[in-house]
Amino acid sequence: MVFDLDLRTATLSVGEFAEFSVGPREAGGGAGGLWRAQLGTQWHRELRDRAVAEHGTAAEFELPLNGRIVHRGWTIALGGRVDQLLRLPAGNVLREIKTVIRPLPADESELRAEYDSYFIQAATYAALIRSGLIEGPAATAFGSAATATELVFVEPGSGLLQTVALTRHDEAPFRHRLEQVAEFLELRRRARDRLRSLRYRPPFAAPRPGQETTQAELTARFATRPVVFFEAPTGFGKTGVLLEFALGQLRSGHFDRALYLTSKATGQLQVIRTLEAMTAPDAAEANSAEPTSRLAGTTPVAAWHVRNKAEHCVNHVYHCVRDSCTFLAGAAERWAASGLARFYLDDRHARDLDTLRAAGRDARICPYEITRTALAFNDVWVGDYNYVFAPRNRGLFFEQPGFLPGRTLLLVDEAHNLPTRVADAYSHAFSAPAADAVLSELHRVRPPAALLRAWDHWTHFLRQRRPVDALPLGDEDDARHLLAQIASALGGATLDYAALGPQVADALWSVPALLEELRESVLPRLWWCPQPGELHLTCLDAAPAIASTLRDFGGVVLASATLSPIEGFAAACGLDSPPPAKPPAAPVSNAPERLGKLNKRDTRKLYRQLTSAAELLRVEETNDAAAPLHLPAHAPWRNDAYDLAVDARCDTTFQQRHRFHALTAATVAALQAAAGRAVAVFFPSYAYADAIAAELGRGPAALRVALQPKLRDLAAQSAWVEDSLRTADALFLVLGSSFAESIDALGGRISHAMVVGPALPEVNAVQRARLAEAGRAGLGREAAFRRVYQAPGMNKVNQALGRLVRAPGQRARVILHCRRFLEPTYAALLAPEYRSATELNDDLDLARWLNR
Questions:
Q1: Greatest Cα pair distance in the chain
Q2: DSSP state letter for 391
Q3: pLDDT digits (tens, 9 = 90+) for 127-155
């Protein structure tokens, strides 16, 4: 949907209008939607051939129909294509053809309830024709003659057809949809007016040294470049800086909303807390009966923290299948009387997860549907990377009514994690045991024979897999063929997904989703088998997907403490080259004529082109203007905060490290003795940490070592850190592990630390394939090794060191325990404040450094 709040106009396709909803709805897109669309295309061709055979030239197809309707002061432009128009002696007949995955024939009342959007779409065409609201050539083509309207339902598996004629009663849902669209537009206009008068307090009561100029620099640089790399050390206050920048951009009208993404759950909570502190009412405001807009303090900004679907679930067992979940079945009918609209009508209403779950439980409506509904009415969305970059999850954001990336500011925190996370989102794994489990469930529900046979062949294929670093091309072709057979059989199958359960349903529909992804993307993938009975499709480089997504947005800020080396990060995001040339966009006023018979995804793509035309023209004026700009933050309080030494006595490479276990253990003991309290020791792996802990245990005076446990719960991680600081002599931590959220607590509490070697990735089939892919991309051997191995490993080292000094006045003494840190290729990848170090060549050097 494209709208102009000042002109009070909106433009959308008839299909999007019919599917528009405020409240619970089926998740759009996805694998099922994609393959049903393909089935629909096949049956459109089939019924077209039948209509030609029966009616000859009296049958016309795919006729464009565009018109405008004025409702409650809003001019709504609608466009689409009519499937069939039959000019018969008894009168014209307009037909819409819809494939459905359910048995036919069915009671008409059931079809109207289950497929209400199909009836609204047909009723919209009928209303435009009957009211004479058609524009352009279609006005002559359709004329004003009375036209009967029919929906033809098709069951693909059996080929059965059922025709339902629309009646006058079907116009009521069409009018109700008009009312919903107008109400939504009115709420967006009020939200826009609120943003124009947005008032907020600075995130910092007293800026730290270096923060004073950051906001002005970021704003000035952003005005000239659509993408900014903002690099600020841990503890600088990136969250506050980014939020203040975003609120300023929203208030200025440069963007309609802001998205704040971070990979840390704790980081997302911190964003919400900071935002609340910046916009919370003063005491006078909170106790006043006056409207907030009449007070001189702050204005609340509508923000929503998006948690994953499983966290919302209030069932004892998570099963997200509508027919088997009482919180999903019938939720749309219960919504109007539920009172849950308060979550988006009242900006100050509590919207934490516990409140959502309690409200959903009381209303018998899935709490995730509250989040899905409320998002469209919020100005700031806070969540994980997946909601923008992962094909399986991005529908929650991109299918929101009124969401236009070209009018959205995207903020990505902890952006050094983005390339890896997106590559993971485009990677897939299959196993024979999982396929066997699906096969057993299919036997139980007795699906169509074609589907059962296709899945049985796929299971047999997986059982035959043996470990191999790269699947032979012939086997890869076989795998693609077997997956295509499953998708083809699945498309026309009528299955009881409630009986199958969410895991089996997800496994089935992941197949057509994967095929669609392989067909649309050009990402390099490794097909390989790490274990018997397993097949993995690992994305080697997600840069093209990242770049394509980022360039859709009106503005982007990628922030982290460790973006350097910038050229490597830019390449990993696909931003090291100019964007591909884009065709000029047509004026927005011509949008209805361009809509045609587009699916929702194509329509949204067209809308993005239309609404971001100005941004595209600005970006394409020069290739240099489209290049990212690097903005390093100033943090003078970090100068001389570190005292580093490089221990050249030790070689921690995988082949040599065992020879130095005793030396490493002795160095840890000496470091702890000098500190007189707990020290932090960072290792590249659990196995390495275990080995040194065992070595220390054999010493004459065993140290109390706390080895990082494999915990996923953030509260448990934090509790372990706090307890270990009190009771242990040394905390053994793993570089780049899930404890990244908890290790932030070490700043100012650990005075001495040690990093045991660069944390280079494990040498395996995937890394070798990435190295080869980098070579094919034109990188030399050394440059490829630097990108695939050295840069990721040293990034983890920089991340660990950054957590030791997080505020002015904090200091840390650190030993980099490996002679490789002295090599220029490794030393150059250290952050500038870590490059000045004392070289330790013998035990006496270590003693002098510790005692000085």
A1: 105
A2: T
A3: 888 877 777 666 666 665 557 999 999 98
